[in-house]
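COMPLEX REQUEST
Ligand: S-adenosylmethionine
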Amino acid sequence: MQEKIVKMFDEIAESYDVVNRIVSFGSDKLWREKAIKKALNFTKNNPRVLDVACGSGDMIEVWRKYTDDVTGLDPSKKMLEIAKKRFPDVQFYQGFAQNLPFEESTFDVISISFGIRNVVEIQKAIDEFASVLKKDGVLLILEFTKPDKKSLIRNCIDFYSTKILPKIGGIISGNKEAYEYLPYSIQNFYTLNELCKKLNKKFEVKEAKSFKLSPASMIIAKKI
Ligand SMILES: C[S@@+](CC[C@H](N)C(=O)[O-])C[C@H]1O[C@@H](n2cnc3c(N)ncnc32)[C@H](O)[C@@H]1O
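STATUS: Structure written out below.
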């Protein structure tokens, strides 16, 4: 299953950024900026940051405005090739969230945006995050979460993500299946509350909120 997911990201890597901008109407940039600014309130200046599931480097682009110490990690070779081209001076690692190739207490902040939904062994990844974060380290999660309850707005979002988004994503990337996986994986993922509870053993959640008119949520948590 994990290999299949990574293969899918390898296949859509080339068109990933363009599709992202179009299907989110550019709002993913705003979510990233907001989430990173919030996380910075809980850490020191110029923090040492690890961006897990970095993909083509969209979070790294924002982090670099606030720190000169960012590292990226992703299992997809193709995604990493694009990220390396965009940020030749950043160090990237090919690897999985559930098996991080770093020593204990290395980073001040770990971010993972739209990545944790793809991690098959989430609890193992959370334990790894806690291990490689320093004392008082901060975990920032941006993710599409399942709604607690249905609403008219949520029905519209679901209609868009199940009926329209796979068509647009499929046409641009040539891989409709990959964009059918997105709504499927959200439906089979946790609600925001459930995801917060998963963190409880190793982290104290400081902030958890959903962005308006979107399925995107943000969690900021501190290592206990
Ligand atoms: C939707 S993309 C998000 C990329 C980037 N973080 C962003 O916000 O645009 C999901 C990324 O998660 C990566 N991924 C999949 N399984 C993973 C795992 N087990 N550990 C870490 N990253 C994983 C994929 O290779 C892909 O690059």
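REMARKS: The beta strands are 49-52, 70-74, 91-94, 107-113, 133-144, 203-210, 216-223. Helices lie at 2-23, 27-40, 58-63, 77-86, 122-132, 152-173, 176-187, 192-199.
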